[in-house]
Amino acid sequence: MNNSHCIPLLKKIGATVKKHRKMRNLSQFELGLEVGKSANQIGRIERGESNPTIITLFSLANFFDIELKEFF
Questions:
Q1: How open is the CA angle 4-38-10, to the nearest 5 degrees?
Q2: 72 in a structural domain
Q3: Range of the domain at 42
Q4: How far is the C-alpha of 5 from the C-alpha of 24, rounded, in Å?
């Protein structure tokens, strides 16, 4: 099955994560520590290369104090 139709959504999620991380002047490493992910994983999410779980998105939304729907 080809998941290329998901790429725009993954890019939007990544851009949202990056925007909120930068607004807080955090490195990918620092954000990873806050949400229990590695800096590499945060980088893959931000580049739209990784499909984060709903639990990861919930952790990020909680940390950023935003609604989950903002990722979508």
A1: 20
A2: no
A3: 4-67
A4: 31
**pLDDT category of residue 1 using cuts at 50, 70 and 90:** very low
**pTM (whole model) above 0.85:** yes
Both tokens of 69, joined, read 């729907």
- With b meaning 16 or more CB within 10 Å and e meaning fewer, what string describes 22-56? eeeebebeebbebbebeeebbbbbbebebebeeeb
Q: How confident is the model at residue 3 (pLDDT cuts 50, 70, 90)?
A: low
CA distance linking residue 14 with residue 40, whole number of Å: 13
The total number of structural domains in the chain stands at 1
- The pair phi, psi for residue 46, each rounded to 5°, is -65, -30
Task: Assign 5 to helix, strand or coil.
Answer: helix
